[in-house]
Write a structure and sequence with these properties.
294 residues; alpha/beta; Arc Repressor Mutant, subunit A; D-Maltodextrin-Binding Protein, domain 2; 7-stranded mixed β-sheet; two-stranded antiparallel sheet; 12 helices; WH-like_DNA-bd_sf; LysR_subst-bd
Length: 294
């Protein structure tokens, strides 16, 4: 069954005007031409699309169904036209990106640099958020793209596996554990911790795993940035569980080192999340495709 766009446009016009006469004036076509197009559509469908009355028309159930699909066709054509126009002019626009501290500290800077080098007309509005807040922002439309840990619940989002990181123990270089090849989490919990804020995905993971052992983390200081956590560890105020890559960045300038954590959950997976990939702007979709290809 094939339909031409002109007939569908006329059908939409009649459905919205609820009158063949008003539709003919709006479309600048003769009333007979409008009637002929509608009759051809009804013949093709095999069912009446309108119920005719002396003062106008009303959609039949078949007409209601066609109205829904016809609108989707023209919405898709509109999106296609805009998207192809964006590509012909070079991708421009802005991407609303929310990401965890871990993703921003480790992986995203390099990817953002290569993406904006390829598409210099794109601007990114980046916000650092905890995993649950990123999911809420994606669902509410305040963010287009999110990057968060895979254990963060996101049932209403489309997600794509992306990168992995390793959680290690950050200790001062002169700490009793600094020369260990690996350490178990139960031993870590005997020390005072420098922890991230309570809503962070990392702290949620720590408390979840501590509960499985029947233990409670002893938090001496809670701060919101990896930089502060590393500085406090170097100052001897406690130990911290952080991504290995982050610890090694600071190990070059302050007296800390990383000790591997001998636990299967120490390897974390990060995911890219969006509300609906097909409905993303061309700019946001290109950014997601860039991340997934990296």
């Amino acid at each position: 069954m094939r339909f031409d766009l002109t007939s569908l446009q006329i059908f939409l016009c009649v459905a919205e005007e609820k009158s063949l006469t008003r539709a003919s004036k709006r479309a600048h076509l003769a009333l007979s031409a409008i009637s002929k197009r509608i009759a051809e559509l009804e013949h093709r469908v095999g069912s009446p699309l309108f119920t005719r009355y002396p003062r106008g028309v009303e959609l039949t159930p078949a007409g209601q169904s066609m109205l829904t699909h016809a609108r989707q066709v023209f919405e898709a054509l509109y999106r296609m036209e805009n998207e192809l126009g964006d590509y012909s002019e070079g991708i421009k626009g802005q991407v609303q990106l929310h990401a965890t501290t871990s993703a921003l500290a480790q992986f995203l800077p390099a990817e953002i640099k290569t993406f904006t080098t390829q598409f210099p007309g794109v601007k990114l509005d980046i916000e650092e958020r905890v995993g649950a807040a990123i999911v809420r922002a994606l669902n509410d439309g305040r963010a287009e793209v999110g990057v968060f840990a895979s254990h963060t619940p996101a049932p209403d989002l489309e997600t794509f596996a992306w990168r992995s990181d390793e959680i290690c123990l950050a200790v001062p270089v002169n700490h009793d554990l600094s020369d260990r090849e690996a350490v178990r989490f139960s031993e870590v919990l005997r020390h005072e911790l420098i922890a991230s804020h309570a809503e962070s995905a990392l702290y949620a993971l720590i408390t979840q795993e501590a509960e499985k052992l029947g233990m409670t983390p002893t938090v001496k200081v809670r701060v919101s940035s990896f930089d502060c956590m590393c500085q406090l560890v170097a100052g001897g105020l406690g130990v911290a569980l952080l991504p290995r890559h982050v610890i090694r960045i600071y190990a070059h300038s302050i007296g800390i080192t990383d000790v591997p954590l001998d636990e299967p959950w120490a390897i974390r997976n990060l995911r890219i999340g969006v509300k609906d990939f097909r409905q993303l702007s061309p700019t946001a979709r290109a950014f997601v495709e860039h991340l997934r290809a990296s």
